[in-house]
Amino acid sequence: MKMKTYRIRKPKIVVVGGGTGLPVILKSLRNQGADITAVVTVADDGGSSGAIRESIAMAPPGDLRNVLVALSDMPQFYEDIFQYRF
């Protein structure tokens, strides 16, 4: 008798947001093995992001940087370098 085998698929999740809460949620979902798509709002205008936005006329990198770190599996040392503020 031949048994059927079933593959369990990873859940596909889309998360929309920004700020400090989004990376926390994404890291938790990543640890659960979900297939994640993140839509990151980049409307930050405070602190370093505001200064970068004014001086170079680009989207503020803060929220995007935090999401990239949350979704990566790089060692803590590299994460600290990526998050370093000049």
TrEMBL record:
The keyword Cell inner membrane does not apply. It comes from the Bacteria. Keywords: Cytoplasm. One of its GO terms (molecular function) is LPPG:FO 2-phospho-L-lactate transferase activity. InterPro entries: CofD, CofD-like_dom_sf, Gluconeogen_factor. Pfam families: CofD. This is YvcK family protein. The lineage of its organism: Bacteria, Bacillati, Bacillota, Bacilli, Lactobacillales.
